[in-house]
Amino acid sequence: MRxxxxxxxxxxxxxxxxxxxxxxxxxxxxxFFSLVALEFGPLxxxxxxxxPYDADAAKAHAADLVAxxxxxxxxxxxxxxxxxxxxxxGAKAAIWQDMDTYQKKGMAFFEAVAALxxxxxxxxKELGAAVNKVGATCKSCHDDFRAKN
Length: 149
Ligand code: HEC
Hints:
By secondary structure, the chain is mainly α. The chain is 71% helix and 0% strand. It has helices spanning 2-48, 55-69, 94-97, 99-116, 124-145. Bound molecules: heme C. Residues 1-19 form the signal peptide.
């Protein structure tokens, strides 16, 4: 009896550890997109004229976005961390079912950010056009792969 209890306990341990890891991955993934949104927000506001255009600030936000695209995000997509597996995430299981498409959408985002950086300091008009292209890549990915969490 004692033996059975012990082995059940031991068998349950890795599951608990994995659940904790999954939550950590979700927190990190949301943190990553929070950083993306923090840097993109002022650029979008400047593009729309909701915030005065400031070339230096625009360049700095664009450079931070580029820095974020250099981060290898594979750890953020550990298996078992979709909205079907854990609470508190908006990452649809579709990401893991169609990682190719997800990565393509990620690449489109990277490319749009790379195109934004050199023109961010060139005035509101040029910034605006590049910001719209980046914004379209956010939306395109969210439409297919992000659920409300
Ligand atoms: C390749 C796909 C993809 C692209 C591109 C993308 N996102 Fe997301 N985004 C996601 C996914 C998936 C989530 C859900 C993450 C989670 O809840 O685990 C998310 C979550 C978010 C969140 C919520 C974070 C939180 O704290 O819950 C914000 C804000 C966000 N994205 C903003 C943006 C902005 C702004 C852009 C473009 C500048 C962008 N995203 C581009 C896939 C993408």
